[in-house]
């Protein structure tokens, strides 16, 4: 199943693969990434992560893979809120990984968290390597969404769980106009001023609008093999948490 988000690229007119464009975009905006996350969501992104980790921590998970880990925010939260002995983060962007390693070292979490640069569509791990897989705000950047879910399914152990946090579009007619104004006009403006990347924060609302949501997302997860797939919407539908299990 192809999704519209796969055709939305960071740099229009660029003939390179989406994965290459996404890598370069995040390499470019890495210094401003954490600040922009807080500014764009008024800090609510932290609440969404905590909610997802609380859901995940209802079962024991000794090894966790955090896909599209970015600067390691979710990986660090997993270390603090779960009993996982080893958390591995992977991301396309070397610059994001570099910042994440600095944050992890400052927090004294090097023994529990390892970050590595790599392609999320071709994970460098054996089958059944992890008890859980997480992704925060990353699946809409996948070049092939279905292939990404198949890879995450492959590296999960039987009975393992997947937890995906992704931005989504609110359906409420009261909220939607304000959401569109904020995401399509204010965020790109702030992004250009802070990150100096003209396209990166225009790509963001475009990718959110295009990514499969609700039942469409869980259907892709099911096709990859996941069962007991669920979608939980938060904050007027501006964020969704998707969960599933490897049978």
SSE arrangement:
Elements: H1 18-41, H2 44-56, E1 63-67, H3 73-81, E2 86-91, H4 94-107, E3 113-117, E4 130-136, H5 145-155, E5 156-167, H6 176-195, H7 200-210, H8 215-224, E6 227-234, E7 239-245
Parallel strand pairs: 1-2, 1-4, 2-3, 4-5
Antiparallel strand pairs: 5-7, 6-7
Helix pairs in contact: 1-4, 1-6, 2-3, 5-8, 6-7
Explain the overall architecture.
This protein is of the alpha/beta class. Helix content is 45%, strand content 20%. It is built from eight helices and seven strands; from the N terminus they run H-H-E-H-E-H-E-E-H-E-H-H-H-E-E. The chain has a seven-stranded mixed sheet with strand order 3-2-1-4-5-7-6, sandwiched between helices. Helix 2 packs across helix 3 (73-81). The mean pLDDT is 91.
State the gist of this model.
The chain is of the alpha/beta class and 247 residues long.
What's the average pLDDT? 91
Question: What is the rounded Rg?
Answer: 17 Å
Bulk shape: globular
Briefly note the structural class of the backbone: alpha/beta
Contiguous runs where pLDDT drops below 50 for at least 5 residues: none
**H-E string:** HHEHEHEEHEHHHEE
Percent of residues in helices comes to: 40-55%
CA distance, first residue to last residue: 21 Å
Q: How many strand elements?
A: 7
Please, how many helices?
Answer: 8
Main β sheet profile: 7 strands, mixed
Strand content: 15-25%
**Widest β-sheet, arrangement of strands:** 3-2-1-4-5-7-6
